[in-house]
Write a structure and sequence with these properties.
46% strand; Pnp Oxidase, Chain A; 17% helix; 146 residues
């Protein structure tokens, strides 16, 4: 292959990372256990220190199983206009459940997160739960002209 097009990228500043994280509402959470991995789209909220993800848990789901086995989670949020502008942010760290009592009551969860998507299961079987990703590492990249 000798005629492949390339797009150049550079690191994002802390302010750019913060602006992008605060400007979006959905990302991808990747969970892992040894050689087994699982990635899911999630609603999130960034408070400047942590990334909060709101999940709908079912005790018998693969998501719940993988959450219990993951030591370090990976969170991705990105945007792309393939011909001009693209960017991505990857954050890693441990996840911890935000259980009661917390400031995350129903009204705040509804204000901070997009509606919870439910797939082929009764709503009463889904437990809306908020987790905090304690950011240990974060990297942002964006496209640039050379």
């Amino acid at each position: 292959m000798t005629d492949i097009r390339f797009a150049y990228s550079i690191g994002m500043t802390d302010d750019e990372v913060t602006a992008r994280l605060r400007g979006e509402a959905v990302g991808v959470l990747a969970l892992a256990d040894g050689g087994d991995s699982y990635a899911i789209p999630v609603a999130y909220h960034y408070d400047g220190e942590r990334i909060y993800v709101r999940l709908g848990l079912n005790p018998d789901s693969r998501k719940t199983e993988m959450l219990s086995k993951t030591h370090t989670a990976c969170f991705l949020v990105y945007g792309a206009d393939p011909l001009r502008d693209s960017w991505s942010i990857i954050a890693t760290g441990p996840l911890s459940e935000i259980g009661p009592p917390t400031e995350f009551d129903d009204a705040l969860v509804n204000a901070l997160f997009v509606p919870l998507r439910v797939f082929d299961e009764p709503i009463e079987n889904v437990d809306p739960t908020v987790f905090a990703l304690e950011i240990e590492s974060i990297t942002g990249r964006r496209s640039t002209e050379r």
